[in-house]
Design a protein that fits this description.
Mean pLDDT: 76
Number of helices: 5
Strand content: 35-45%
Shape: globular
Order of helices and strands: HHEEEEEEEEEEEHHH
Distance between the termini: 76 Å
Length: 180
């Protein structure tokens, strides 16, 4: 029996074939950034229907799309953006348990986003804040005028303007990031 054990192991390995995770990777091969009327679409094509998770981060504003069981080496690196998508960085994370392709979208004045699968593609639609403002009605402008801050005497205004930037009346806290 001990002489047949190596043959049994070889036969068993041949039946099992390569690891299932390696055979099922979704190879991402194409990343396109298309400006639309209301914003920008990022379209990533793969070899099979994608499985993904999405989350948005702030300071700086960005969108993260993780594609599980994916190989992003074909699109890896930085891609120039357009509109509310400042740029896209594609990365690959692989270990003995998982293979994840990550898309990191830098956002610039983005109001909302939608991510969905379309066959073997992931379609990321980002709408710009400018497009959202254009789509608003005149009623919104009237409400903004009514909600304006109360008038401040000139002496108080000149003192506060010199020490602190202007604030919206309903903003609790804000931060401005500037680049040289």
């Amino acid at each position: 029996m001990s002489r047949n054990l190596p043959l049994l192991v070889i036969a068993l390995a041949a039946c099992l074939g390569p690891p299932a995770a390696a055979a099922e990777l979704n190879s991402l091969s194409d990343l396109r950034i298309v400006q639309t009327g209301s914003g920008t679409q990022v379209v990533v094509s793969g070899t099979r229907a994608p499985t993904f998770t999405v989350f948005r981060l702030s300071n700086p504003d960005r969108l993260v799309v993780d594609l599980s069981s994916a190989d992003a080496t074909g699109i890896k690196g930085h891609h120039e953006g357009a509109g509310p998508v400042a740029g896209v960085v594609a990365s690959q994370f692989t270990d003995e348990r998982a293979s994840v392709g990550r898309l990191l979208l830098g956002l610039d004045k983005a109001s909302q986003y939608d991510v969905h699968a379309d066959g073997n593609r992931v379609v990321i639609s980002v709408e710009g804040a400018v497009a959202a403002v254009k789509a608003s009605t005149d009623r919104t402008a009237e409400v903004a005028v009514v909600a304006a801050a109360p008038e401040v005497p000139d002496a108080a205004l000149s003192k506060s303007a010199a020490t602190e930037p202007a604030r919206e009346p309903n903003v609790v806290a804000s931060r401005v990031d500037e680049q040289a």
